[in-house]
Amino acid sequence: MIDFLNKGELKELYSMQDIYTTSPVTNIYTQSQLNDIENLVDGQLVKYEYASTKEEAEEKFEMKISDTTIVICVYKQYTGTLNPKVLIKKLHQRIKKSGNRVQYNQKVTDLKKEDGIYKITNSDTKTGINKTILSKKIVAAAGPYNGTLVKDIAPYFSSLIIPKRLFLSFLKIDSGKYDELTLEEKNRIRESYPVAYLNSEIFYSMIEKFDSDQRPLLKVGGHFLRTEIKDLDEVWEMQLTEQEIQWSKENTADYLAKLNLPIKSSDLEFANGYSCVYSLTESEIPYVSHALKNGTDIDSIFLLVGGMSGIGAKGSLAYGLIAADLLIGNRNESFMYQKAKSALGSERLIKDIQSIDK
């Protein structure tokens, strides 16, 4: 994508660094996950540091951990944090540079298939004016709205992809407390994010940005802290509860304590937060698949990309590549490509549909 955007330009206007911030990624496990960790690092070519004891963690990372904790830090280019807003902007630029259009402020209100042609009804969210588009091929990638969007064409997706609410909170360290930190301690914070604590809730956190005083804004969430949604259109406006804010502070303080930093939960300020939505499949593996006619026949002109289960931004380019290849008939015989395509595609979808009523 970056190469395509730079093609024909007098100088390179775009770079991967616009999208990715490279930094070590800290992963925290428990001793009970030792077999999984050994399988993960076996034959691993990516540079990493591994601390299986509290003595090693102190020596390698200046971290204080318990006897039941294991820490792995991964060092790899473009492994760190990804900016979805920038990625989406560049994808739109690529679409336009390819000679195609991006229509903004449009909401799809109806999707039907008549005589082998798809009829897409769009509503302008500013004017309310409806317009119908006819298309011979279609890719549905509407996130949590996929089920509603394709209900007349592929109703089974509403049973296979379930939206759930999650929360994200943004925390700052009290300015007085932050000013008391040494330069080495401030650098330790910078170098120790992003982090994922691979426990039952999967606490994860990253530095969103730095304010004018160079205090980090910490984005915090829990990958498995999912709740039911009553109204999908209203969930985005839901405010965080006091319990969710407190969970964010306590888990952040616990991680900062592991970094041997003198910061308590009471030293953390809640800056803001919002509700977001995961589209979940039972296996937590997305679909990049043709829809099915009569339960088993592939509809070669309809594709659905959905069920990202919280890994949409990181996987979007790979999912999009597979979807494009399926739509235009490109072949890629790479072993890993075929393995991914099989895991995401129609063979799995058929099995999943058959299991809906069991």
Provide the fold topology.
Blueprint: H1 2-6, E1 20-22, E2 25-30, H2 34-41, E3 47-51, H3 54-61, E4 69-75, E5 80-82, H4 84-97, E6 106-114, E7 117-124, E8 130-135, E9 138-140, H5 146-149, H6 157-160, E10 162-173, H7 175-180, H8 183-191, E11 195-197, E12 203-210, E13 216-222, H9 242-258, E14 268-280, E15 287-293, E16 297-306, H10 312-328, H11 335-344, H12 346-354
Parallel strand pairs: 2-11, 9-16
Antiparallel strand pairs: 1-5, 2-4, 3-4, 6-7, 7-8, 10-13, 10-14, 11-12, 12-13, 15-16
Q: Describe it for me?
A:
One of its GO terms (molecular function) is flavin adenine dinucleotide binding. This is Glycine/D-amino acid oxidase. With 358 residues, the chain is of the alpha+beta class. Among the domains are: 2-82, no CATH class; 105-136, no CATH class; 162-280, no CATH class. The protein has helices at 2-6, 34-41, 54-61, 84-97, 146-149, 157-160, 175-180, 183-191, 242-258, 312-328, 335-344, 346-354, and strands at 20-22, 25-30, 47-51, 69-75, 80-82, 106-114, 117-124, 130-135, 138-140, 162-173, 195-197, 203-210, 216-222, 268-280, 287-293, 297-306. The protein has an eight-stranded mixed beta sheet with strand order 3-4-2-11-12-13-10-14. It has a three-stranded antiparallel beta sheet with strand order 6-7-8, with no helix packed on it. β15 and β16 form a beta hairpin. The chain is globular and about 70 Å long. The protein starts with a helix and ends with a helix. The mean pLDDT is 93.
